[in-house]
Amino acid sequence: MTSMETVTLFRPVGLEELYLIKGSGWKAFPPRLPDQPIFYPVTNEGYAAQIARDWNTKTGSRHGYVTRFEVNADYVSRFDRKVVGGREHEELWVPAEELEEFNRNIVGPVVVTQRFLPTE
Question: How far apart, in Å, are the Cα atoms of 10 and each of 34, 108, 110, 119?
Fold first, then answer.
């Protein structure tokens, strides 16, 4: 039996997206909206928490969550990593049309590691 190498990624989500992930049995991210051409998981939990806390709590349901998941390392190596601020702001850019295949390469469940509620 061989073991597959995986990469740990994180994704900040709001309550609406979290419900869709739960609906998949904690195995997949929902399709992107037409105006969202890129699915961008991030490479570290601190950056995901920053987005969930500072962005997700100010829009939509005003709840932010950090999810963690493992992806097949061979598969995920095909996507560009982009630094979009400081060096800790690293994202993986997955074209929206690749998301279904990306989801098939998730190994194990998507888990919630942090929760941020709205502040008044």
Answer: 22, 14, 9, 23
pLDDT tens figures, 57-99? 888 889 999 999 999 999 999 998 988 877 788 999 999 999 9
Q: Are residues 51 and 12 in contact, defined by beta-carbon separation less than 8 angstroms? A: yes
58: containing domain: 6-25+32-114
CA distance 79 to 66: 21
Residue 119, domain member (yes or no): no
pTM: 0.91
Residue 101 lies in a domain: yes
**Alpha carbons 46 and 4: distance in angstroms, whole number:** 26
Is 81 inside any structural domain?
A: yes
Number of domains within the chain: 1
pLDDT, tens only, 104-120: 999 999 999 999 998 75
